[in-house]
């Protein structure tokens, strides 16, 4: 430790100064023999850096050493300390009120009472929604040794509380371990069978940090930056100007000029569950990092590509467990009276570290993430609702794809996601919010292992980027402790009725491959502008929906098969056009394609896969503009809001549309797609993929 403090003086600035000095010596050519000295200087710097990273490593790998964990329950507080980190909890409410670490008496924001708290947004049928903060009523030490302390803040529900608090029993748990620079948090919620019907829209933990000290945010390798202040978002004092929805603002008079003219919006930092494992904030001056590490997705809902919030201006961090973000009310968690439920959310790990630079803190946090993933399921959790490794099961198998108009593939470049979720229809996992889900990515041969599955009954689902549709294994799978199941070779036959006549895009449940326009220059988030490492982040800019009217002021998209390129000529979202002021107009896109012959042996099929939909209604017609009675219409579809929230996908939908032979002709044909609901600038769809198939006898 002492060593660490000595070395920490050598931060980046110091290295730079020394380097400059040495270079200057060289240039001045004062002393040729100085070369030797200079070389020694460089060597010295390397050595210091080496010592440095070693101290960093040893600091976080000393689980067996360090001070004993102590608990102090004086008055209305509980204080748990392991010598590295000290946590203060309100008793019995169970909010974390202070985290003492390194130079900080409290890394949390002392201007607010709610610093680290749980909440659930809920309502009974017919009520307006309200927020329950899961305030504890009873404190208990679950286990206490010199190695580890687990504490609980719980509350129980009874009908006398009906209407005012959420009908759930709640147990919030915190684990502090010897030598570990952080705290594990989880919560178990339970409802009894007879309790009233309730809907829960959002379940999460919120963390609020000291706003004057935490200034830098990192959510992945390239999405990292200095951040604006909460005060820079203030509309009342003119620091910011409002934008199209309340979460997004344009900073006009930020404290740091760097952000002037930029957009701030918490949805800029969303991530898919499969990637949402580490995010956090740094206090760059104090060189302290605060990280949320989520070692497993088992308690998250709606599968591996559900998008969620991470960290944002505040400084705020979130552990999102359930929400309707990027999906809509279709994925609410509704329990009818008569339906019991029990679920554990977490454990998540709040990790604190310290290093001379943001880069080193990020690297160390990633190392810690890898360590947490490796030790999942944690053997130290003292809850009957948390099965340990030997109480869990494993499912193995091999998935291949048989597409009758392509050869059977061993996946190759395709990515197969295979998962277990509560039993349900094909594809139901993406709206499933009540159970645990276990997902993995198969390797190139389609081989997969789903490890550490909690006992229970599941369906095995899969989907493969590169193919439309969803796979479901016909038999239910029951996991008992220690059980290992090999389901053997599985074959997914995606929907197909004939050869591909043409296709637009890639069937991967995302619209990222289409034309993503440049943002309005007045509404740029610089983090995503011309970022050389992350062209895939282009879609995250604010306001791209408004670019449709700029790129297509009069004519709509016309895509000519064989001539057009979907990367350039297919706009990423099908929206209304602005025709001055707030006036909007329905838009009709055309796909023009040539047929040398029209087969009479069966009908054609249009596959229309949507990556997102928001209060849209798509009308489909062939060789004439859609009328009120089109050949096909989706009807009002979707409330995923992915267009407004710069998500490039929401829920996946596949429409299989029969096209009668007599509608087609030899020569040029046109398919018309009209977005017919003119209700808002956010109304529209993002297509994932379109394909026209001939009848099975038609020529490819
Ligand atoms: C942030 O930390 C500084 C230094 O520890 C302290 O003076 C300040 O009051 C803290 N601010 C908040 C909002 O917690
Ligand atoms: C915004 O500015 C107004 C006017 O200065 C002030 O009263 C208010 O407290 C500020 N709001 C926030 C959230 O800082
Ligand atoms: C919640 O979801 C269920 C299932 O999708 C649906 O039937 C119900 O209408 C939804 N509830 C609300 C309030 O939207
Ligand atoms: C084509 O579709 C129409 C309408 O669904 C149906 O009546 C007809 O039998 C189909 N033709 C063939 C050859 O399958």
From TrEMBL:
Broadest EC class assigned to this enzyme: lyase
GO annotation, cellular component aspect: extracellular region
Protein EC: 4.2.2.23
Molecular function terms, GO-annotated: carbohydrate binding; rhamnogalacturonan endolyase activity
Domain Rhamnogalacturonan lyase: 416-486, 500-692
InterPro entries xref list: Carb-bd-like_fold (IPR013784), Gal_mutarotase_sf_dom (IPR011013), Galactose-bd-like_sf (IPR008979), GH-type_carb-bd (IPR014718), Polysacch_Lyase_4 (IPR051850), RG-lyase_II (IPR029413), RG-lyase_III (IPR029411), Rhamnogal_lyase (IPR010325)
GO biological process, one term: carbohydrate metabolic process
Gene3D superfamilies: 2.70.98.10, Carboxypeptidase-like, regulatory domain, Galactose-binding domain-like
Keywords: Lyase, Secreted, Signal
Superkingdom per UniProt: Eukaryota
Annotated Pfam families: CBM-like, fn3_3, Rhamnogal_lyase
Location in the cell: Secreted
Enzymatic reactions: Endotype eliminative cleavage of L-alpha-rhamnopyranosyl-(1->4)-alpha-D-galactopyranosyluronic acid bonds of rhamnogalacturonan I domains in ramified hairy regions of pectin leaving L-rhamnopyranose at the reducing end and 4-deoxy-4,5-unsaturated D-galactopyranosyluronic acid at the non-reducing end
Family per record: Belongs to the polysaccharide lyase 4 family.
Protein name (record): rhamnogalacturonan endolyase
Organism from which the protein derives: Raphanus sativus (Radish)
Gene: LOC108820873
């Amino acid at each position: 430790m002492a060593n660490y403090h000595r070395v920490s003086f050598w931060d980046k600035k110091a290295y730079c100064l020394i380097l400059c000095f040495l270079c200057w010596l060289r240039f001045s050519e004062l002393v040729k023999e100085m070369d030797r000295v200079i070389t020694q200087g460089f060597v010295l710097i390397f050595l210091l850096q080496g010592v440095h990273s070693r101290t960093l490593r040893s600091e976080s790998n000393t689980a067996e050493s360090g001070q004993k964990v102590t608990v102090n329950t004086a008055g209305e507080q509980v204080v748990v300390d392991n010598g590295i980190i000290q946590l203060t909890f309100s008793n019995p409410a169970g909010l974390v009120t202070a985290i003492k670490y390194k130079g900080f008496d409290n890394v949390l924001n002392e201007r607010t009472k709610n610093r680290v708290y749980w909440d659930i947004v809920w309502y009974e049928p017919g009520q307006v929604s309200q927020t329950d903060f899961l305030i504890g009523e009873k404190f208990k030490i679950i286990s206490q040794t010199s190695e580890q302390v687990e504490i609980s803040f719980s509350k129980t529900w009874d009908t006398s509380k009906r209407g005012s608090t959420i009908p759930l029993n709640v147990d919030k748990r915190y684990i502090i371990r010897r030598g570990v620079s952080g705290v594990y948090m989880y919560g178990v919620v339970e409802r009894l069978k007879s309790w009233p019907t309730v809907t829960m829209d959002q379940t999460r933990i919120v963390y609020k940090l000291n706003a004057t000290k935490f200034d830098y945010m990192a959510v992945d390798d390239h999405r990292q930056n200095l951040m604006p202040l909460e005060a820079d978002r203030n509309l009342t004092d003119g620091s910011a100007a409002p934008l199209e929805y309340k979460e997004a603002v344009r900073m006009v008079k930020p404290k740091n000029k760097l952000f002037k003219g930029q957009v701030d919006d918490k949805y800029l930092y969303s991530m898919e569950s499969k990637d949402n494992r580490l995010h956090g904030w740094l206090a760059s001056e104090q060189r302290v990092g605060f990280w949320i590490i989520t070692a497993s997705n088992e308690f998250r809902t709606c599968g591996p590509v559900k998008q969620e919030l991470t960290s944002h201006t505040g400084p705020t961090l979130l552990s999102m467990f359930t929400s309707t973000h990027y999906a809509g009310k279709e994925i609410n968690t509704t329990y009818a009276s008569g339906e019991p439920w029990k679920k554990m959310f977490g454990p998540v790990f709040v990790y604190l570290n310290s290093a001379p630079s943001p880069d080193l803190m990020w690297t160390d946090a990633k190392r810690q993430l890898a360590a947490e993933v490796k030790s999942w399921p944690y053997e130290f959790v003292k809850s009957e609702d948390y099965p340990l490794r030997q109480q869990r099961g494993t499912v193995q198998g091999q998935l291949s794809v048989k597409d009758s108009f392509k050869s059977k593939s061993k996946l190759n470049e395709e990515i197969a996601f295979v998962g277990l979720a509560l039993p349900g229809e094909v594809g139901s996992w993406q709206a499933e919010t009540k159970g645990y889900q276990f997902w993995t990515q198969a390797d190139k041969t389609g081989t997969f292992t789903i490890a550490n599955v909690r006992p229970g009954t599941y369906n095995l689902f899969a989907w493969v980027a590169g193919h439309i549709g969803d796979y479901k294994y016909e038999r239910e799978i029951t996991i008992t402790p220690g059980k290992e199941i090999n389901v053997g070779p599985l074959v997914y036959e995606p929907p197909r009725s004939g050869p591909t006549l043409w296709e637009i895009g890639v069937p991967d449940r995302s619209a990222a491959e289409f034309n993503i326009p440049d943002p309005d220059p007045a509404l740029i988030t610089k983090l995503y502008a011309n970022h050389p490492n992350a062209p895939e982040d282009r879609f995250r800019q604010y306001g791209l929906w408004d670019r449709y009217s700029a790129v297509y002021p009069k004519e709509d998209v016309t895509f000519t098969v064989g001539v057009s390129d979907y990367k350039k000529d297919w706009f990423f979202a099908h929206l209304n056009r602005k025709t001055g002021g707030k006036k909007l107009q329905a838009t009709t896109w055309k796909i023009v394609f040539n047929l040398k012959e029209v087969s009479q042996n069966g009908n054609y099929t249009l596959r229309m896969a949507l990556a997102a939909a928001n209060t849209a209604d798509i009308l489909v017609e062939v060789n004439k503009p859609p009328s009120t009675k089109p050949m096909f219409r989706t009807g009002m579809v979707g409330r995923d809001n992915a267009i407004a929230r710069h998500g490039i996908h929401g829920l996946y939908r596949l429409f299989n549309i029969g096209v009668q032979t007599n509608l087609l002709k030899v020569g040029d044909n046109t398919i018309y797609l009209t977005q017919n609901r003119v209700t808002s600038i956010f109304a529209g769809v993002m297509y994932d993929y379109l394909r026209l198939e001939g009848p099975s006898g038609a020529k490819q």
